[in-house]
Amino acid sequence: xxxxxxxxxxxxxxxxxxxxxxxxxxxxLYVTVNLPDxxxxxxxxxxTPNHISFKAKAxxxxxxxDEKDYEFAFDLFEEVVPxxxxxNLTSRSFNLxxxxxxxxxxxxxxxTKEKVRTQxxxxxxxxxxxxxEQEGDTAAVDDDFDMGGMGGMPGMGGMGGMPGMGGMPGMGGMPGMGGMPGxxxxxxxxxxMGGEGGLGNEAGPSGAGDDDDDSDDDGPPPxxxxxxxx
Length: 230
Known about the structure:
Elements: E1 7-12, E2 28-33, E3 44-47, E4 51-60, E5 65-75, E6 80-89, E7 94-100, E8 121-123, H1 186-192
């Protein structure tokens, strides 16, 4: 007999799909089949606008996990867009990112069409944000998701290294501190701060390596010069 795996879910909602930032994802459902060691060759997953189904074998004898059959199937609360949804299988879980069809600010009250309580479907608190706290929130898409496979998601193709961060314009790598305001010479500045010989002091420009004026240990007295013989 097949076992119902644990499902974790969270969501985001918006009246529009306008992206505030490149990594912002709106009107989506996070659904995680929390089941380790799924056998990829046995995985059967189907998503339609109204329905979702999953079936697979999972287990690992080396870890003491007996191989079992797992499955579930149910109607979704409202429609999703399969062509703009994504999936990813890892050794820990089967992760789904489902695009809601209707754009509205209100959250879905539940994941399933039928209003029934089930111990297998739980809130994913690691991704959940309250409906009235979404403003400025960026989606909690973790490393398990390949966002490049998410259809219809402009700007999400691998996140392209965050445009605009290319080398921090204006910083120029700080070559030798050559850009000190007013043409100030670094070595001269350090000398004025007590660091003889530029960077010769290990304490650096902070002066932390300078002699302590209050120290009782002044070192050995200087040697007196020998008087010349008559």
